[in-house]
Design a protein that fits this description.
The protein has 264 residues and is an alpha/beta fold. Helix content is 50%, strand content 10%. The protein is built from eleven helices and eight strands. It has helices at residues 13-27, 33-47, 55-70, 80-85, 87-96, 110-122, 167-175, 190-194, 203-217, 222-230, 234-253, and strands at 74-78, 101-103, 128-129, 136-138, 148-150, 159-161, 179-183, 197-199. The protein has a six-stranded parallel β-sheet with strand order 3-2-1-6-7-8, sandwiched between helices. The longest helix is centred in the C-terminal third of the chain and has 20 residues, at 234-253. It starts with 12 loop residues before the first helix and ends in an 11-residue tail after the last helix.
Length: 264
């Protein structure tokens, strides 16, 4: 596959670069075909937060990092889209907050597992959980492939990061007592609603910020970190994010429609 080089002056460069990563991931067996659709759906929501990280997302990021730093056994769940978009930041963040990476796939194929494992190792990961050769258990109330979790990973975790996640698995993980952190551009999704902390932002902007905040917050004492977590209200944050989206759309609706030259 020939990768398209997007010019630096292209107005949609960031978006197009992300698409190229997802397409490349699909070619390499990292991303499932359905993952292409999922990416496009998320990008639609990015438009209505102005394609930027707002203060509400930063507040959620700080609470999420704090929760991971005080966790006894944190884990980061990895699917194909996440692996394609932010592998290096994912590995670095994993090391900073001491949260191992665990592969978890809805559209499971051995080839996909191997491709994701290789990509994570290439990005610097030293150990990855959730592979077919490791001891596993199942999450109750789930009948699909994502019910399978690593005994030493999500199975034993108290805090789980589930970026770009399935809503039903989020609910199931909450039901068995896990504290869930997610990254989801749709504040109305089941994943966003049922998580303890939802970061409504594009993962390509979120992960570098999580790395940045982890470097600072890991120097804080446990009491101050706990205060950050305790003061975060996910429902309030989601409501405020939806209000922010409405304000953005209202502002756009009042802008003049640009005249489009007639094609002759």
């Amino acid at each position: 596959m020939t990768k398209i080089e997007v010019p630096d002056d292209h107005p949609r460069k960031v978006s197009l670069d992300m698409r190229e990563k997802i397409i490349e991931g699909h070619t390499l067996d990292i991303v499932a075909t359905a993952g292409l659709l999922a990416h496009g759906r998320g990008e639609a929501f990015d438009y209505i937060i102005g394609e930027r990280t707002n203060e509400l997302a930063v507040k959620a990021i700080r609470a999420a990092v704090a929760a991971l730093l005080i966790a006894k056994h944190p884990i980061i769940s990895v699917n194909g889209n996440v692996c394609s978009l932010v592998p290096e930041d994912l590995v670095l963040f994993s090391e900073l907050v001491n949260a191992p990476l665990e592969i978890n796939l809805f559209y499971y194929r051995r080839e996909r597992e191997d491709a994701i494992l290789k990509a994570l190792y290439d990005a610097g990961a030293k150990d990855v959980l959730g592979t077919h050769d490791r001891p596993s258990e199942t999450i109750s109330k789930l009948s699909h492939n994502r019910r399978k979790v690593d005994i030493e990973g999500i199975g034993a975790a108290d805090v789980v990061v589930v970026p770009l996640e399935d809503g039903d698995r989020t609910q199931a993980l909450r039901a068995v007592g896990k504290y869930i952190i997610t990254i989801d551009l749709n504040p109305m999704s089941r994943t966003a609603i049922y998580s303890n902390i939802t970061i409504v932002d594009n993962i390509v902007r979120t992960m570098p910020l999580m790395v940045e905040h982890a470097r600072v917050l890991r120097t804080w004492n446990k009491e101050d970190l706990q205060k950050l977590v305790s003061e975060f209200d996910n429902e309030e944050n989601l409501r405020s994010t939806i209000q922010l989206m409405l304000k953005y759309l209202e502002a756009k609706s009042n802008e003049p429609i640009r005249n489009i030259p007639e094609v002759k």
